[in-house]
Design goal:
The protein is mainly α. Helices cover about 65% and strands about 0% of the residues. It has one domain (about 1-75). α1 (about 1-25) packs across α2 and α2 crosses α3 (about 55-70). The termini are far apart.
Length: about 80
């Protein structure tokens, strides 16, 4: 049981790192990555996204584009 919890936590950390890299290559300033991650999560929690709907590559791109439009200060 403990091993599976560690694996889930490690997987979550890797996912956050991967999203950080995606945001960086989308143009987010390196010093703004934490802010961008928080805002990304807020967008996911907003009414725009239904938990029942699938969330894949297209939705991730849409979320990053939404960040770019709403929070231009994060981007280089």
């Amino acid at each position: 049981m403990k091993d599976s919890q560690i694996s889930i936590q490690e997987l979550a950390e890797q996912l956050i790192d991967t999203l950080s890299v995606a945001l960086y290559y989308a143009g987010v300033k390196k010093e703004k990555l934490e802010d961008a991650l928080e805002l990304y999560e807020e967008l996911l929690d907003s009414a725009e996204y239904d938990e029942e709907s699938p969330y894949g590559i297209d939705e991730m791109i849409e979320t990053i584009e939404s960040l770019r439009q709403k929070h231009k200060d994060l981007f280089a």
